[in-house]
Design brief:
288 residues, alpha+beta, Nucleotidyltransferase, domain 5, 2 domains, five-stranded antiparallel beta sheet, five-stranded mixed beta sheet, 9 helices, globular
Length: 288
C-alpha cells in the first residue's frame, strides 16, 4: 500500500531531515465548521493569568456545542502537546460550562489557526536512548487547589508520550505534588523500557528522569520516611524501587530547562514557543 500519508485524520509528511505528524486538514475543517476561518490569531492557547473559575458569568445555553468542541480538541492533542494543558482544564467544566469557558475554547481555535500545520517532527539523532521530564503545577486548580501532574518522554531524542492530568487529591506541599508526578513518570518509563526491549532496543544503563525539585530527589534516594512523606508512601516506594533497581536515574534539572511547563500551567508566549521548539514541534507549512 506504500507509505501512509493520511490516517485517522493524521497527516504524515516525509522530508529529507525527518518525518512530521500533524493534523492540518483536521484543524482547517474544525475552523470552517465553527466559522472561525477569518478570526484573529492568538499567540498562545491560554493567557498566563486566565481565571476560568469565575462563577459570575452566565451559563451556556447550548451545553452540547461546548462538549462537542472540547471533544474535537481532545482528539487534536494527539499531535499537539502545546494545547494539551488548556484542553484538559476546559474539560473539567463539561458538566456546567459558562461563557468564560466558551471564550477560552475559542481562543484555542484562534491559536491553532495561527499554525494549523504545526506538528511533531521525528528525525534521527544517532541513538535510541529513553529519557523523561517530570513536573507538577502545585495547587494550580483554583477551584479545589489540586495540583497538575505532567511528564513527557523521549526515545532517540524524539517526543513519544506526554501527559497532563489533575491529581486526585490535594497535595500539602510542592514536594508532595512533585512526587506524585514523579511516580506517574516512573511508571511510564518502566513501561517504555520493557516495550523497547521487546522490540530489540536495550537501554544502556538507567533511564534519566529530569526533575527540578532537589528535595524530591533526596526523598527518593533516602530510605527513611519522614512525617511529610507518609501521605505519599506508596509513590515513594515505587520511585525508590525503580531507582534502586537502576531502572531510572534521578537528575536535577533547573526550571529554565524543563520541557513540561506547558503541560502543567499556562505560560507567557516567549517561554511557550521555546518549549515547543524543544519538544520538536515545527510547522513545515509556515511561510519562511
Amino acid at each position: 500500500m506504500g507509505k501512509p500519508k493520511y490516517f485517522l485524520r493524521i497527516e504524515v509528511a516525509y522530508k529529507k531531515y525527518g518525518l512530521l505528524l500533524s493534523q492540518r486538514k483536521y484543524v482547517l475543517d474544525l475552523l470552517e465548521k465553527t466559522g472561525l476561518l477569518e478570526c484573529k490569531y492568538a499567540n498562545t492557547p491560554m493567557e498566563a493569568n486566565a481565571d476560568l473559575w469565575l462563577d459570575d458569568t452566565s451559563l451556556l445555553d447550548d451545553v452540547g456545542r461546548y462538549r462537542r468542541l472540547i471533544g474535537k480538541l481532545i482528539y487534536l492533542t494527539v499531535t499537539r502537546p502545546d494545547i494539551t494543558f488548556t484542553v484538559g482544564v476546559l474539560n473539567r467544566f463539561m458538566h456546567k460550562p459558562r461563557e468564560v469557558h466558551w471564550t477560552a475554547a475559542l481562543k484555542i481555535l484562534a491559536y491553532v489557526k495561527s499554525c494549523p500545520g504545526k506538528g511533531l517532527l521525528y528525525k534521527k539523532h544517532g541513538h535510541t536512548h529513553i529519557s523523561a521530564f517530570s513536573y507538577a503545577g502545585y495547587a494550580g486548580d483554583m477551584g479545589d487547589r489540586k495540583s497538575t501532574s505532567g511528564f513527557c518522554t523521549f526515545i532517540g531524542g524524539n517526543l513519544v508520550t506526554w501527559r497532563s492530568k489533575k491529581q486526585d487529591v490535594v497535595s500539602r506541599s510542592s514536594a508532595e505534588a512533585e512526587y506524585r508526578a514523579m511516580a506517574h513518570t516512573a511508571c511510564e518509563m518502566v513501561w517504555l523500557r520493557k516495550f523497547m526491549t521487546e522490540l530489540g532496543f536495550v537501554q544502556p544503563g538507567p533511564i534519566p528522569m529530569h526533575c527540578d525539585n532537589q528535595s524530591v530527589i533526596y526523598i527518593a534516594q533516602n530510605p527513611v520516611f519522614h512525617e511529610r512523606t507518609k501521605y505519599i508512601k506508596v509513590d515513594c516506594n515505587f520511585v525508590r524501587d525503580a531507582w534502586e533497581k537502576k531502572i531510572v536515574s534521578l537528575i536535577f534539572t533547573p526550571s529554565s530547562q524543563q520541557f513540561v511547563d506547558i503541560l502543567t500551567k499556562a505560560t507567557f508566549s516567549k517561554m511557550f514557543f521555546t518549549i515547543c521548539d524543544k519538544l520538536g514541534m515545527v510547522d513545515i507549512y509556515a511561510p519562511t
